[in-house]
Amino acid sequence: MARTRSTTTNACSFVLKLLCLYSLPYLSTSTPLFPTEALPTKSGYLPVNPATGSAIFYTFYEAQSPTSHLSETPLLIWLQGGPGCSSMIGNLFELGPWRVVSSHKQNPDHLSLERNPGSWNRLFGLLFLDNPIGTGFSIASTPQEIPRDQHSVAKHLFAAITSFISSDPLFKCRPIYITGESYAGKYVPAIGYYILNKNVQLPVSKRVNLRGVAIGDGLTDPIVQVATHADSAYYSGLVNERQKVELEEAQRKAVELVKIGNWSEATDARRRVLYMLQNMTGLATLYDFTKKKPYQTSFATRFLNIAEVKKSLGVNELMVFEECSDVVGAALHEDVMKSVKYMVEFLVKKSKVLLYQGLYDLRDGIVSTEAWVKTMKWEGIEKFMMADRIIWKVNEDLAGYVQKWGSLTHVVVLGAGHLLPADQALNSQAMIEDWVLEKGQFGGQQKGSSSNCRATL
């Protein structure tokens, strides 16, 4: 998810978060707003720097209907985008087992939880991480400790993930799939790349059993992607030829700044391209050109700021939840236009990769993804580009299109924008399940990594 909403944050909030880390334990008692059945299986903090107290907040939901023993049940890890947006939005607005909705129930907040039939933890375990530190309920001891690049992001994520895995012997050998959307188009490859490189340095008993990565509507190769907005808008009928030329000129400036390594100015130039596109089209949101108003994530934000909800999650009631953090966004400002395509090229050789987009996304959508994918340095890219684009149906209804060869799969999802699981819950569920399990159009020859992991129970 890109940074769509933020409030002013200052250094004091980091001190407050640090003081909150060791406060309230996880509670399992039900509350009117957060009934027992909706509570995560686990929630709390995973340390990334025990010396300073910086830690990543998580919520974990075990599989509702696993098809194998829990020690073998796949585990999905979800990372939100931004940079600086909380994965609790993914949890409570998109793909978690419960969603926050407006309610007429007799509570002062007029909010309630309803079951999400398209939750991604139907068959798999599902772990949400507020990443990087300083995001959502996660804790950065100081603003200076917030990552400034993807290597630092991955280092923190690796510490958190290995801490989570070591917390229960049942987690040790479970196949792991890293997933996420938008700016997580950089986080996901970064942690995947880090894990595979780290694994070769570790004994088998200490390795992370990574099997694949999935990126939804991702910003992965910005220098290529920023140059596609004019074409995408023009051929969608949203701008005329003169406007297309104006956008192309703005795009060229962003690309030129990348080429000379002026990263901060390049980020600002990309932002100007998006502002121009927004102003030219008058759309409610570039995340979905069919919507009459932006995604309504405010219910989830309000819910997460209720004291009894924070208490139920094991978070100090004094903490203020922000959907997106300005401080984290500023820390990664120079990182925005840097490419991680080389990480995807490495991953597609060592594991399996899923790229998916909503048809209506104008920000990090289909055209921008296809533009960088065809430039990949991978021995299978020519065969992938020549592979059939197969019609994909869910329950006999057209859901989208799947293109696949070997370890790379690309999916276009109809009726969806940038926050794809929120728009197409059941179809996104079918997509992730079939990809992980290699069923239907997602089956056939795969090149996923194997594991010699053996659980000790």
Which SSEs are present, and which pair or pack?
Blueprint: H1 11-20, E1 42-49, E2 54-61, E3 75-79, H2 87-95, E4 98-102, E5 111-115, E6 125-129, H3 150-166, E7 176-181, H4 184-199, E8 210-216, H5 222-225, H6 229-234, H7 241-259, H8 263-281, H9 298-304, H10 307-313, H11 326-331, H12 341-350, E9 352-358, H13 366-373, H14 381-386, E10 389-394, E11 397-405, E12 408-413, H15 420-423, H16 425-437
Parallel strand pairs: 3-6, 3-7, 7-8, 8-9, 9-12
Antiparallel strand pairs: 1-2, 2-6, 4-5, 10-11, 11-12
GO molecular function, one term: serine-type carboxypeptidase activity
Signal peptide: 1-30
Organism: Durio zibethinus
Describe the structure.
- The structure is a single chain.
- This protein has 457 residues and is of the alpha/beta class.
- It folds into two domains: 11-220 and 297-356, Alpha/Beta hydrolase fold, catalytic domain (Rossmann fold), CATH 3.40.50; 230-281.
- 35% of the residues lie in helices and 17% in strands.
- The protein is built from 16 helices and twelve strands.
- The chain has helices at 11-20, 87-95, 150-166, 184-199, 222-225, 229-234, 241-259, 263-281, 298-304, 307-313, 326-331, 341-350, 366-373, 381-386, 420-423, 425-437; strands at 42-49, 54-61, 75-79, 98-102, 111-115, 125-129, 176-181, 210-216, 352-358, 389-394, 397-405, 408-413.
- The strands form two sheets. A ten-stranded mixed β-sheet has the order 1-2-6-3-7-8-9-12-11-10, with helices on both faces.
- A hairpin with an 8-residue loop joins β4 and β5 (111-115).
- α4 packs across α12 (341-350) and α7 (241-259) packs antiparallel against α8.
- The longest helix has 19 residues, at 241-259.
- It is globular, with a radius of gyration of 21 Å.
- The chain starts with 10 loop residues before the first helix and ends in a 20-residue tail after the last helix.
- The model is unreliable at 4-31 (pLDDT under 50).
- Residues 1-30 form the signal peptide.
- One of its GO terms (molecular function) is serine-type carboxypeptidase activity.
- InterPro entries: AB_hydrolase_fold, Peptidase_S10, Ser_caboxypep_ser_AS.
